[in-house]
Design goal:
The complex is a heterodimer of chains A (about 550) and B (about 700). With about 550 residues, chain A is mostly helical. In chain A, about 60% of the residues lie in helices and about 0% in strands. Chain A is built from 19 helices and four strands. In chain A, the strands form two sheets. Chain A has a two-stranded antiparallel ribbon. Chain A is globular, with a radius of gyration of 23 Å. Chain B folds into four domains: about 280 residues, no CATH class; about 90 residues, Calcium-transporting ATPase, cytoplasmic transduction domain A; about 100 residues, HAD superfamily/HAD-like (Rossmann fold); about 140 residues, Calcium-transporting ATPase, cytoplasmic domain N. In chain B, the strands form three sheets. In chain B, strands 1, 2, 3, 4, 5, 6, 7 and 8 form an eight-stranded antiparallel β-sheet that branches. In chain B, helix 10 packs antiparallel against helix 21. The longest helix of chain B has about 40 residues. The N terminus of chain B is likely disordered. Classes of the chains: A mainly alpha (about 550), B alpha+beta (about 700). At the A-B interface, helix 13, helix 14, helix 16, helix 18 and helix 19 of A face helix 7, helix 8, helix 11, helix 21 and helix 23 of B.
Chain lengths: ~550, ~700
């Protein structure tokens, strides 16, 4: 049983880690072509420059890169909101889905623009096919591409080069990275039994002779980018626990691999662009270590029986099976829960609300850190923030004014990095405090006590980490929830992209110093330890009081 | 090198004023300079007000909240105390300096250049000419325009041996407050009252003008940012607790907040900065800004002058190399005779070597009826004339010319061509080995060559190995030819050398290094060093140097000892390391504090949370009190370390980080667990709560 779980984890995580290496190499080729547009293989740059027209004509500094990114995302947000608001009048609506409520439209548009995919709606009952594909799936591509573009720009800046052009980068990320990968995955999913059709819901007669409406649609296309782009918003409400999104053991493995594949490859892409593969290796190792600890924790705590069945004549020797899909095996649920929250994906393969209390803490830790692989592109950017803080302290400890890759880290950089880290804490803790103390949150709970608190905490955590998974058990389609999480998602998306790019902008105005054996090495185990310690102390400990009143209190009061 | 002893912090002369200073620094305007401690003071005021309110209404646990209040104020006072102690040590030094600045009278030379009149020293303006005679105090900084004098500079260097100052050249600068011992000088004033060298020194060591350095500002930003994060972490707790149906007293929230924010490093930060400057001052080096001290820690390339830094100032005879047909003893004998009256260090070293090798003892010059022929720039030789015999020693080419001249004059054979060739071969040999050849001739006959050797200072090779481990490249600057320079560079173990260096070469070398992204340090004294001193990231001017050099550099070495550049780098590194180590310690402490306070805080709501009380602290109150006491006492406990600085070891950056991470990171993690538990046991035993 234990051996089986370990093998399962090694297969999924280890296999993906191996696959991320060549993909990282490919992504660097795609995102950061070394050749000039006039070169023999400059065809892609030339093609994208032609499409981008004057917008893609010149290299941008960080403010212009950022403005381009914000403007682009604003347009996408508006288009998405418009499609959702007018879906009843638009084509591709075979089941005649009606209009959505205004705050839900705002929340959903914010959710998909910000790569969060928090879903306060249930896709198969509320949305037309045009809404699913034209608004949401489109955003699943471009929001993920935005993250990859931002990381490429950040890495170029750190390499001492111009940041590049956003309109070129987003095309590269969409057409050269996400689209091919999504096509391959969608084909695999269709082979695995996931439907891909534009026909309306199927009407079936069950064995009991009852008429049943089975929602379906272009599921495979939707699911593949949802997994690859750390989006997580499912075609169906139950997400990847739904048999038509995730029919069996092998599709489950493929979908899990797809969750962490690109976030892992982003680390290698970053390392290749800055030209420091060993540094990338250290970052990768630190991220992997955190991931494995969370997985071990969740598998371990989930091996205990659930309190919900206490006293019932149910065999619980396999651990907590409440809310699990048995076709995925016993470790599938907890493993998915960690992968999806470590990467800001947010799709679910088991019901997080039913996890044992301490198992439920693991996804929250993943989202609090939001950098142990993290979202596509942005996970590595978040890690950069921890690196700035870690390097600052470590740099002093070797008796030099701190520097990273030869760039001197001074007051401005430290300020920006801390502001970004502070923002995440503010959204999670501030939001939770307001909703826990007011009827906005308290009245929407299905559970009382620490578990109810965890639900509120989880919802804000998920929104701020741009994750999108839900603890559920929360009646979250209310005006306050829709507006609050909508705002949090947008701010929590763009602040941690804006501030790191500002850091790079500030760094690149400085004289870069040479590295020697007297400068801080960012390539060894010592630096890795320092980085991990920074993540724990600066990133995780802030949430300790909240964790104590949520999962930990629930654990100590119910599990013993 | 006169390194003044460091004052112990337990010295009553420092301790008593420091305690008073700790209270004086409660002034909000002073506190506001330190964001972390300012925040602590603000919440202390808040809790004190609440305590007074509770005292009036008789509500709450007064004993407990009184004690927390008390320790909150202690936290602020301890921080002030740390700063006051650091300043106190500087003040003692400033006091002695200020005494030398006592009101002086100046003899201002009238505009017509004739006659002088007495004016107050403080009224002098830049450009005024003054006359200073033996026994008088130089009224202000200036440059000698006429005359030469011996000057006692003990006021600034602590060194009582007088130094020579003269007009023109590289020794023309004089410092206000120093005393002319002999002769007279005319001085053009270069600094107005209040901005003289000693004024600046006083301000620097007192810390009055202390400006925060870039790294200190950045660290303050980090600490302020962390403080904000912990504001968030604690300010949201009441809402969380309210959800769970509990309420947390403000005093407990404040206790958690104050223990979590980085008070340890916040309290000691300015003390560390002052102590770093102070370490330099005690080392007789004045940094014109804290920025320069930080830059010293970042140095990648050290430019070191060969003479006086890498080699002893004087060459020494190390070998006698006779030509064929002459014994070494004969050569030694002749060389010794020629050098007996030669008072130069080279000459003396020849006498010493002759005695060491062949036991040739000193002879009475008068008894030999000898006349000494001194060295002149024309002959470039020195020697001795005995009865009918003459011995000369000097540069090889000069000696060869001498032979030609004398042989032409008296018609004797001008030394065989063979012996000339042999002589030149030996000379080349010596040059290649980094030595200076000195030919010896007796009555027109070439005897051989003396090997004058640049003596590489003892231990300097090891220093360079150490520097290399620190990641610092050393470049030797010398006026020698490349061959000689290469030999000495190899012997001393420097990484590179610049031979036949002109001031322009130096400047170019610095620019090239900087273009490669390196920070460069150098020292210099001459006016022509000024551009290079200004260009270097750390330029240490010798106190004996010109005013131009002193103005161009960002440090002045009062002992004029160029070797100190190495120590300056170490002091810079030590300053930054101390900051980093205490920051790490401070932040690592938070883990234990969470585990002390968080369970205690929520135990009323969920009693089972006692499982988190890993230290087994006896009661929630004692847990909170112990944490806040530990938080305050650790400041005092670390004052000595912050003043002394974390020891720097040249073991390479990676191992240094590993070591400091272990000591201050892991230590910072573990120490508070033990400390809080111990305090809890004491608090419980004596029944404080």
């Amino acid at each position: 049983m234990l051996t089986q779980s370990i093998l399962f984890v090694v297969l999924v995580v280890g296999g993906t880690a191996l696959a991320s290496w060549p993909l990282g190499r490919y992504m660097q080729w795609a995102m950061d072509p070394a050749d000039l547009p006039s070169g023999i293989s400059g065809w892609k740059t030339r093609a994208f420059a032609a499409i981008g027209g004057p917008l893609a004509a010149s290299s941008q500094n960080w403010t212009r890169y950022m403005s381009a990114m914000l403007a682009f995302n604003l347009v996408m947000f508006a288009v998405c909101a418009a499609i959702l608001a007018l879906q009843q009048h638009l084509p591709l609506n075979p089941d005649g889905r009606p209009a959505l409520e205004a705050s839900l439209i705002f929340n959903t548009a914010a959710s998909f623009t910000s790569n969060t995919n928090l879903q306060h709606y249930s896709g198969e009952v509320s949305l037309s096919y045009l809404s699913q594909l034209g608004a949401l799936m489109w955003l699943q591509f471009v929001s993920a591409a935005t993250g990859i573009a931002a990381l490429a720009a950040l890495a170029r800046g750190l390499a001492g080069r111009p940041l590049g052009n956003f309109f070129l980068d987003i095309q590269r990320a969409c057409f050269l990275v996400l689209l091919p990968a999504a096509l391959v995955l969608a084909v695999l999913l269709v082979i695995g039994g996931v439907p891909m059709t534009f026909e309306g819901a199927a009407i079936a007669t069950t064995l009991e002779g009852v008429q049943q409406t089975i929602a379906r649609g272009p599921v495979a296309a939707f699911v593949s980018i949802k997994q690859l782009g750390t989006n997580g918003g499912g075609f169906f409400g139950p997400n990847s626990t739904h048999p038509l999104e995730n029919p069996g053991f092998w599709t489950n493995i493929i979908e899990m691999v797809a969750i962490i594949l690109i976030p892992m490859a982003c680390v290698w892409m970053f390392a290749r662009i800055i030209g420091r593969l060993r540094h990338g290796g250290v970052i990768f190792a630190v991220m992997l270590a955190f991931l494995l600890v969370k997985i071990a924790g969740s598998v371990y705590f989930e091996a205990a029986p659930t309190r919900a069945f206490a006293g019932l004549p149910i065999d619980q020797t396999l651990g907590n099976l409440e809310g699990k899909e048995m076709r995925f095996g016993p470790a599938g649920g907890p493993l998915w829960s960690v992968l999806t929250t470590s990467t800001s994906n947010g799709s679910v393969g088991a019901m997080h609300d039913s996890l044992n209390p301490m198992t439920g803490l693991m996804p929250m830790v993943g989202m609090w850190l939001n950098a142990t692989f993290g979202g596509v592109g942005v996970g590595m950017i978040n890690m950069f923030l921890y690196i700035v803080v870690g390097v600052f302290i470590a740099g002093m400890m070797i008796g030099r004014t701190p520097e990273y890759l030869g760039w001197r880290v001074e007051a401005r950089e430290v300020k920006l990095a801390l502001l970004a880290l502070l923002a995440h804490g503010l959204f999670v803790l501030g939001g939770t405090a307001i909703f826990a103390a007011t009827p906005w949150g308290a009245d929407t709970l299905n559970n009382t006590g620490p578990h109810g608190f965890s639900e509120i905490l989880y919802e804000f955590t998920s929104a701020s980490a741009n994750n999108g998974s839900g603890f559920e058990g929360l009646g979250d389609n209310t005006m306050p929830w829709n507006i609050a999480t909508g705002i949090v998602m947008l701010l929590a998306r763009f602040i941690p992209i804006l501030l790191p790019l500002a850091i790079v902008g500030s760094l690149s105005g400085k004289r870069r110093s040479a590295e020697s054996n007297g400068t801080l090495s960012v390539e060894g185990g010592v630096f890795g330890t320092m980085l991990a310690a920074t993540i724990v102390v600066v990133g995780a400990l802030t949430f300790f009081p909240a964790a104590t009143l949520g999962p930990i209190a629930e654990h100590v009061t119910t599990m013993n | 090198m006169s390194r003044s002893p460091s004052a112990s912090i337990f010295d009553a002369r420092i301790l008593a004023p420091a305690i008073a200073g700790a209270f004086r620094k409660l002034d909000p305007r002073t506190l506001a300079k330190n964001p972390v401690m300012f925040v602590v003071a603000v919440v202390s005021v808040l809790t004190t007000v609440l305590f007074v309110r509770d005292l009036v209404t008789g509500a709450g646990d007064l004993g407990f909240s009184f004690q927390i209040n008390l320790w909150l104020w202690f936290t602020v006072l301890f921080a002030n105390f740390a700063e006051a102690v650091a300043e106190g040590r500087g003040k003692a030094q400033a006091e002695s300096l200020r005494r030398s600045r006592s009101e002086t009278q100046a003899r201002l030379i009238n505009a017509d250049g004739e006659g002088t009149r007495l004016v107050a020293g403080a009224s002098l303006k830049v450009g005024d000419l003054v006359l200073v005679e033996a026994g008088e105090i130089i009224p202000s900084d200036g440059e000698i325009v006429e005359g030469v004098a011996s000057v006692n500079e003990a006021a600034i260097t602590g060194e009582s041996a007088p130094v020579i100052r003269e007009s023109g050249g590289d020794r023309s600068a004089v410092t206000g407050g120093t005393q002319v011992l002999s002769d007279w000088i005319r001085v053009r004033i270069t600094a107005a009252a209040g901005s003289t060298f000693i004024d600046r020194m006083v301000a620097l060591v007192e810390g009055a003008e202390r400006q925060k350095t870039p790294n200190e500002i950045a660290l303050n930003v980090l600490l302020a940012g962390l403080t904000l994060i912990f504001v968030l972490a604690t300010a949201t707790i009441p809402a969380f607790a309210a959800y769970a149906g509990g309420s947390i007293p403000v005093i407990v929230l404040v206790a958690l907040f104050v223990t979590l924010i980085p008070t340890t490093i916040g309290a000691l930060l300015s003390a560390i900065g002052i102590a770093g400057m102070d370490r330099l001052v005690r080392f007789n080096v004045l940094a014109m800004s804290g920025r320069a001290v930080e830059a010293a820690g970042d140095i990648d390339t050290l430019l070191l002058d060969k003479t006086g830094t890498i080699t002893l100032g004087n060459r020494q005879a190390s070998d006698f190399r006779p030509v064929k047909g002459v014994t070494e003893r004969d050569l030694a004998d002749a060389a010794q005779l020629a050098s007996l009256a030669d008072e130069t260090p080279e000459g003396r070293s020849i006498v010493v070597l002759a005695k060491e090798k062949y036991g040739i003892r000193g002879r009475d010059m008068a008894g030999l009826n000898a006349t000494f022929v001194p060295f002149t720039a024309q002959s470039r030789m020195s020697g001795v004339d005995l009865d009918g015999s003459s011995i000369r020693k000097g540069a090889v080419d000069a000696v060869l010319r001498h032979i030609e001249r004398t042989s032409a004059a008296n018609g004797s054979a001008a030394g065989t061509a063979e012996s000339r060739r042999e002589l030149e071969a030996i000379a080349t040999d010596i040059s290649k080995a980094g030595g200076t050849p000195l030919a010896v001739v007796r009555d027109g006959r070439l005897l051989g060559v003396l090997h004058l050797k640049d003596i590489v200072k003892g231990g300097i090779r090891e220093r360079f190995v150490e520097l290399r481990r620190m990641g610092i490249r050393t470049v030797m600057i010398t006026g020698d030819n490349p061959m000689t320079a290469a030999a000495i560079a190899a012997e001393a173990g420097v990484d590179d050398f610049l031979a036949e260096a002109t001031p322009e070469d130096k400047l170019k070398l610095i620019r090239d290094e900087q273009a490669k992204g390196k920070l460069v340090a150098m020292c210099g004294d001459g006016t022509n060093d000024a551009p290079a001193l200004a260009q270097a990231d750390v330029g240490v001017a010798m106190n004996t140097g010109t005013m131009a050099a002193r103005e161009a550099g960002n440090m002045v070495d009062l002992d004029s000892d160029p070797t100190k550049l190495i120590e300056i780098v170490e002091i810079g590194k030590q300053l930054l390391m101390t900051r980093g180590a205490l920051t790490t310690f401070s932040i690592a402490n938070d883990v234990a504090k969470y585990f002390a306070i968080v369970p205690a805080m929520f135990i009323a709501v969920y009693p089972q949370l006692d499982a988190l009380n890993v230290m087994g602290l006896s009661t929630p109150e004692s847990a909170i009190l112990s944490a806040i006491i530990f938080n305050a006492l650790i400041i005092v406990a670390l004052i000595p370390l912050s003043l002394k600085g974390v020891a720097y070891k040249a073991i390479g950056a990676d191992r240094l980080l590993q070591r400091n991470l272990l000591v201050y990171g892991l230590g910072g993690l573990i120490v508070p667990f033990i400390g809080i538990k111990a305090i809890d046991m004491i608090v419980t035993a004596i029944g404080l709560v």
